[in-house]
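Dear Dr. K.,

Following up on our conversation at the group meeting, I've run the structure prediction for Guanine permease from Metabacillus indicus. I'm pasting the input sequence below exactly as I used it, so you can double-check it against your construct before we proceed with anything downstream. Let me know if the numbering doesn't match what you have in your notebook.
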Amino acid sequence: MKKYFQFEELGTNYRREFIGGLTTFLSMAYILFVNPLTLSLASVPDFPNELRMDQGAVFTATALAAAIGSLLMGLIARYPIALAPGMGLNAFFAFTVVLTMGIPWQTALSGVLVSGLIFIVLTTSGLREKIINSIPEELKYAVGAGIGLFITFVGFQNAGIITNNDAVLVGLGNLKDGNALLAIFGVFVTVIFMVKRINGGIFYGMILTAIVGMIFQLIDVPTQVVGAVPSLEPTFGAAFANLDQLFTIQMLVVILTFLFADFFDTAGTLVAVANQAGLIKENKLPRASKALFADSAATVIGSILGTSTTTSYIESSAGVAAGARTGFASVVTAGLFLLALFFSPLLGVITAPVTAPALIIVGILMVSSLGKIDWNKFEIAVPAFLTIIAMPLTYSIATGIAIGFIFYPVTMIVKGKAKEIHPIMYGLFIIFILYFVFLAG
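The predicted structure tokens came back this morning:
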């Protein structure tokens, strides 16, 4: 075991790897409760119940997808990087694809499945690098920042801090409302944990917020903590049901969005965490193809189980900071996600005001990529800004990406930089034009 994970070479031991794996788990455990609420559209009261995903099934799918994905990453790629259904991608799945586009969640899962299969093909064929490299870095950063703003907006909405205002579309909610006050408390507490650099700050913030909610009778006290594992039956295999409905421009854009977002998220996380752990050799990432395969395979498995795109988590950096250097830490994290399956009764105390602070804080972390965009170049600033601002304003991640990818070739050509545009970007330009024509029709 020590030899396989190269303990001596990397200067680590079982204790450091266990603590690192535990730290990573605590840093990302919030997804176990946020994902079921997000995918079931629990914050949308007037949505038909028969069109919602089953929260219990999504909880189980989330834990299993995280466990299997982390195990694959640990055993195959041997990196201290854990996986789980991605924040941002789950919001796109629920609020854009299902709620806004009116696409059944079963079909959306089919889209996730296909995007994962394409990811596997691109990874094994070597085309992945070509596609990623065809998209300018500024647009990649803009997509990340835009998703961050979108998630934050959803968090404020779920908390009741931002509400509908017929005069100006949105406005400040009733801050005297108990749930809004609970969410505000959660934001303050979580911010304090994060500023103090406490590992698992988001998770601890949710726990403390839930406890305060129960004290003030805003949340029902659970009758039990440990219970039976919820059945996967409502979601398992649903991704295979509607594969014939994927052959439309609308679903093509959905699949591409799942694919691109996973591309950027995974590549950025792998490089960032591996660099932090000192695993990058001669500016190259060893076993990169294995890591990407583990990520894409986890997405396919997760979609079959019944959850949105599974991806590498930047929270793994917390585990690395605690000493993790090998894939054994990911194996530990996987085991903890399996153990978490028995704590499903706690789902009842994780309400929208409890998860809202997590969404807001994750949004803050994601918009850090704004600083990497060269705002002095107007031909770059225009598509980047429109990508970012369109996501929360149109309540659609896909629309934000489409607008940015349409404007980029236009501004670059006008600037006289047509030769700098990769041919793939022209193809995406046409696809997204057709996307708007299709929606208009």
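Two things stood out to me. The chain has a mean pLDDT of 87. The radius of gyration is 21 Å.

Best regards,
J.T.
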